[in-house]
Amino acid sequence: MKESVSIGLMGLGVVGSRVAQVLMERRDMISSRVGVPIALAKVLVRDPHKKRSVHIVPLITLESKEITQNPVIDIVVELMGGEDPATSYIREALSCGKHVVTANKEVIAKYGPELLALAAKKGVGLLFESSVGGGIPLVYPLTREFCLDRIESIIAIINGTTNFILTQMAKGADFISALKNAQELGYAEPDPQNDIQGLDCAYKLSILATLGFRNIIHPHEVYTEGISKLRPRDFEYAQELGYTIKLLSIAKDEGGYVEARVHPTLIPQSSSLAEVDGVYNAVQVQGDLVGKVMFYGEGAGASPTSSAVISDIIDAAQKVVREVKGQTIDLRQEKPLRPMGEVRTRYYLRMRAEDKPGVLAQIAQVLGDNEISISSVIQKETSSGSAELVIMTHIASEGKMRRAIQEIELLPSVLQIESFIRVED
Ligand code: NAP
Ligand code: HSE
């Protein structure tokens, strides 16, 4: 039996610093859970001169092999972010027989199945609870508690940065200052475009849907739209219509297809997801046995994320001590992805048109010709003399909706389609 467990940490930024701090401050508690002393052995950074909030200068290295190939190190904790060189370091660590803990959703979404297979071959664990939902347990329930359920849908708010921005925008704040605020709070990705453009959600949804449906869904297969096209007018109209706007990540397993999409969505103010504000995340899972379950908590930030990282470290350390192999996850690729054009939902359309008789009738005609039924219309005069029209539709197919939009754009009396947002009731 091992008499101590050594950790190699890669990355000492927002999350890495907090993890290092908790590992040192709660060392006795963690060691007593593991059964033997556990300690940080090496810490990889990029810039050795940067001022750090944790004092571990003697452990710092700039050489990745001092961690991935170090025979003393049992567990490698990757908290650098980005695809490269994180993927190759993780691969190398697993190949050298080390357990790996990571918060890197990009790496897990893109290479998870391959890395899990490598971990299984080497008899070690690859643990990534912190890659989705910050401190909220999601990977563990999906792979353990619900392992006998047939998961039917996952509907989630899984990006803290964009939920924080949207919450601020709904209160009238502007996009740029809300983003700056989220960055200062440590919520945003090293490249915040990953949050804003919806990529971070696509990575996380691909991980959750792959685990939940036990069917590999690649992140590039997830239809992805970010929040940059939303305007204050849309929040005002959403409010007037009894809705709020959230960046939803939606995955469904129905009719022999899997569906996976990330986009801004109007949801009723009365729904439980509408109440999820700021950095909070919520994930609704519907299973055939468990029914509807909702997970809720802080989805980003140093402390919640480090809570999930440390619980994975303890899990891996117990495996080291007991000489237990890592858990294997059975993943297949059987069900095809539903093309976005075949997805069915409701829509919100906001456009500017000439304020003259017959315009609304022409737009209604195009929608009707494409089998799209209108559920409500708001028309307001603008200061420039044109009319602003907001149309809510009943459920229609995405393909028909897109064709209708192209045809509406060609109508001479329509000046511009300014917003097109999906609606989920
Ligand atoms: P961060 O603050 O930018 O920190 C990244 C750290 O990695 C820095 O210490 C940096 O070194 C180091 N690093 C980056 N590239 C490196 C390289 N090539 N070689 C050596 N060191 C390198 O990022 P973070 O916010 O902590 O995020 C880390 C990971 O956690 C990401 O995968 C992210 O998606 C995930 N995550 C973050 C949160 C959150 O709320 N922030 C939540 C959940 C998951 P220097 O300090 O020397 O620059
Ligand atoms: N940038 C991510 C977010 C970090 O805002 O949700 C947590 O994964």
Q: What would your notes on this structure say?
A:
Helices cover 36% and strands 26% of the residues. It is α/β, with parallel strands linked by helices. The chain has three domains: 152 residues, NAD(P)-binding Rossmann-like Domain (Rossmann fold, 3-Layer(aba) Sandwich); 156 residues, Dihydrodipicolinate Reductase, domain 2 (2-Layer Sandwich); 84 residues, 2-Layer Sandwich (Alpha-Beta Plaits), CATH 3.30.70. It has 14 helices and 17 strands. The strands form two sheets. Strands 7, 8, 9, 10, 11, 12, 13, 14, 15, 16 and 17 form an eleven-stranded mixed sheet that branches. A six-stranded parallel sheet has the order 3-2-1-4-5-6, sandwiched between helices. The protein binds NADP nicotinamide-adenine-dinucleotide phosphate and L-homoserine. The site of L-homoserine has 11 residues, from helix 7.
In a few lines, what is going on in this structure?
The chain has 425 residues and is of the alpha/beta class.
